[in-house]
Write a structure and sequence with these properties.
Layout lengths: L5 H5 L14 H22 L2 H8 L4 H30 L1 H24 L19 H21 L3 H6 L7 H36 L1 H21 L13 H14 L52 H12 L1 H26 L18 H26 L7 H33 L12 H25 L5 H30 L18 H23 L1 H23 L1
Helix pairs in contact: 2-8, 2-9, 3-4, 4-5, 4-6, 4-12, 4-16, 5-6, 5-9, 8-9, 12-14, 12-15, 12-16, 12-17, 13-15, 14-15, 14-17, 15-16
Subcellular location: Membrane
Main location: membrane
InterPro entries: MFS_trans_sf (IPR036259), POT_fam (IPR000109)
Length: 569
């Protein structure tokens, strides 16, 4: 190993001693194996949960959408708690271990619901007079989903970061190994996702839910065993504190000093960080109101009363990115609608091909992934390489352009979904059947457009957060992205409830149709979604897009100033 890595390996915060030095590919082989089995387990359940709750718990549309959205939103939001616990108390290794155990317990409970008939309501035959699940049946289900959400909160913020901990990025070899690790990590993720969305979903839908749930539960158990076996090979960093706390400190200190007159104030600015003009009220957190706030070394005695200008500017930068994130939430809502309401449409469509093969409704989730992959490969191979060959410089779409294409794709997705739903429902009513004679393949365009929303808007927003925040705040970038996903799920649930309560007034049937979409007018819900997406498009272009340019400028000036200070030192 390179000479520069000696201090890295001798650090007392690392894993216990062993004959071979910890870290590197010796550790990563366990991490990648663990990640493959864990993702195979989690995605096998997530991908087909809508179908399971509809067919085995007889959930009507509104309750089902609420359960899926709240579970998905909570899983994303719990990632913030997982990141805090990891950074401040447990460290990444223990957080991953505890998160995996929590997920395993949740999966075991869900597997029990598939094994024990009394844990579910009676099977609904012909979707007529369906018996709803009782309180204790729902309580058992919710207990399993809650444990899985807690587990996801511990795993998501730590899995990639723990793998990255195994390499010494101060050396060229370490940086090269880290890049290779990312490639293998995404390969394992994609491999697990494809297996989950094809083989396991098929088994669950067409063969047995018991076997279909036992497979991912067993995979997660194997994942935990592999992870623990590799303990001796890991570099295990001690908790080092969280940047989230610094942001809260700024808000607290600024609130405490909000009445101070700052016309002749001196600031605590040891790094000579440039001050921006936005949100000057937050700068009161860095005001030295009394020299007693500093110790003998000139450092704050209480970080909750006095912060540095750099801490203040980090919070300003983060707040300045919120308008763009709000536009992203609107896109994520469209993606969520297809994973719930879109799957309900698939359940009530003809899934039998001429050959007699039955397409599992959960396979519709493959369409967004395929569309995303086709676009990325087309963009990177055809567009970027060809423009570089012709002009000598690769031309890429700007963040603003990509987000706009994503917003347009979201509108197109809902428009297509509304027309397809009207055709599906009309055919079902004409034949007097629960399942429409319309082929399930007719739903592919709306799911593909959902994938393009992710390919353009979601990827661009994640890139925006990651590249415009300083390296010390990369964890925050991931957290904000997860919060955006969480808010989209919660807002979708709120929208569905408002529409349901409003449209069923006067004894009318809800647009969402209860147990049977054919009794409602789901296309009207999609029309409403188009209107919301159009407003989001206007919001982004008339207001939010300016913050992309602003944050890019601030970030560039900050880096230039940092380089100047380093040159002076």
């Amino acid at each position: 190993m390179a000479e520069g890595s000696n201090s890295f390996l001798d650090d007392p915060c690392l894993s216990p001693s062993s004959k071979k030095p910890p870290g590197g590919w010796r550790a990563v082989k366990y991490i990648l194996a663990n990640e493959t089995f864990e993702k195979l387990a989690s995605m096998s359940l997530v991908a087909n949960m809508t179908v399971y709750l509809k067919t085995k718990y007889n959930m009507e549309g509104v309750l089902l959408v609420n359960v899926i959205n709240i579970w998905s939103g909570t899983s994303s939001f719990m990632s913030i708690g997982g990141a805090l616990m990891s950074d401040m108390f447990l460290g990444r290794y223990l957080m991953l271990l505890y998160g995996s155990i929590s997920s395993l317990l949740g999966m075991m409970i869900l597997t029990l619901t598939a094994i024990v008939p009394k844990l579910r309501p009676p099977t609904c035959i012909g979707q007529i007079n369906c018996i709803d699940p009782n309180l204790w049946q729902l309580s058992t289900l919710y207990a399993g989903l809650t444990l899985m959400a807690i587990g996801a909160g511990g795993i998501r913020p730590c899995n990639i970061a723990f793998g990255a901990d195994q390499f010494n990025t101060t050396t060229k070899e370490g940086r090269s190994q880290l890049e290779s690790f990312f490639n293998w990590w995404y390969f394992s993720f994609t491999f697990a996702l494809v297996i989950a969305l094809t083989a396991v979903v098929y088994i669950q839908t067409n063969i047995s839910w018991v076997i279909g749930f036992a497979i991912p539960t067993s995979c997660l158990l194997v994942s935990i065993v592999i992870f623990v076996i590799g303990h001796h090979a890991y570099i295990i960093m001690k908790p080092h504190g969280s940047v989230f706390v610094d942001l809260v400190k700024v808000i607290t200190a600024a609130t405490r000093k909000h009445r101070l007159d700052c016309s002749r104030c001196s600031f605590y600015d040891p790094d000579f960080h440039p001050r921006t003009k936005q949100l000057r009220c937050l700068e009161k957190a860095a005001v030295i109101a009394n020299q007693n706030e500093l110790d003998e070394d000139g450092k704050p005695k209480n970080g909750w009363r006095l912060c540095s200008i750099q801490q203040v500017e980090n919070l300003k930068l983060l707040l300045g990115m919120m308008p763009v994130c709000l536009a992203g939430i609107g896109c994520f809502m469209t993606m969520d609608q297809q994973t719930t309401i879109g799957i309900l449409q698939a359940i009530q469509s003809n899934n039998v091909l001429r050959s007699g093969f039955k397409i599992p409704p959960g396979w519709m989730g493959l369409s967004p992934m395929i569309a995303l992959s086709i676009w990325i490969s087309t963009y990177e191979i055809l567009w970027v390489l060809q423009t570089k060959r012709l002009t000598g410089k690769a031309k890429r779409l700007t963040m603003t352009q990509r987000i706009n294409i994503g917003l347009i794709s979201a509108m197109a997705c809902s428009i297509v979904a509304s027309f397809i739903e009207k055709k599906r429902r009309t055919a079902a009513l004409k034949h007097g059947s629960f399942k429409s004679p319309m082929s399930i393949l007719m739903l592919l365009p709306q799911f593909a457009l959902s994938g393009l929303v992710e390919a353009f808007a979601a990827v661009a927003i994640m890139e925006y957060l990651t590249t415009q925040l300083p390296e010390s705040m990369r964890t925050v970038a991931g957290a904000i992205f997860f919060i955006s996903l969480s808010m989209a799920s919660y807002l979708n649930s709120m929208l569905v409830n408002i529409v349901h309560k409003t449209t069923k007034k006067g004894g009318k049937t809800s647009w969402l149709g209860g147990h049977n979409l054919n009794n409602g007018k789901l296309e009207n819900f999609y029309y409403l979604a188009v209107s919301i997406e159009a407003l989001n498009f206007l919001y982004f272009n008339l207001y939010a897009r300016r913050f992309i340019a602003t944050s890019c400028t601030i970030n560039k000036e900050s880096k230039e100033d940092q380089h100047n200070n380093e040159d002076q030192i």
